């Protein structure tokens, strides 16, 4: 597959799946816009991409802020002159009980990050993707189909919504030559546990326990998810649209 001279936006690309995806695209000589809130982490990703021969456009942005979302698309078009692929990866995980006094506030925050931002970016990017006959890859979650833990209604609802949004928009844009698909990971080894108060031993125990929840007895790496994103964004998948692909180590089988 070749992405040379293809223009690609990857949101949430300062770490994890987004970073791995941006780096994989850079190895294919794509022209990339990387988006995130953490400037230093984004710079680290940018430097890696540049070493691969593709210096990205770096945009510090919060996808829950409308002006920032507008900037992501407008600055990409201003810089590159077109858009071929949108990867809606930015997201957050949090749990909250329906009985919590702040349940609706937390629900709104999760929906704004995991669903509304994707809808808004798609709305703004679609005219440019129609022009280039490009495509969209949304990053969902196995949580769209499985619950896995209590007090997870907000996150699971946001990801279920994203999967169905994918199908709805895929149907609408198909006649205009734009494909839309969704990748739904299960457990992925990223740096999110660093944000939780855990020492090294607790982290190792956390991952070991999580491995037991999957049929394969393993946790996926971000690079594995990125490989699937690149396939769906490529011409190799030119007949694939409106589909959601589980890459969950079999967690939904248990």
UniProtKB/TrEMBL annotation:
Molecular function per GO: oxidoreductase activity
Keywords of this entry: Oxidoreductase
Gene3D superfamilies xrefs: NAD(P)-binding Rossmann-like Domain
Pfam family of the protein (one): adh_short_C2
InterPro entries: NAD(P)-bd_dom_sf, Sc_DH/Rdtase_CS, SDR_fam
Protein's UniProt name: Uncharacterized oxidoreductase YxbG-like
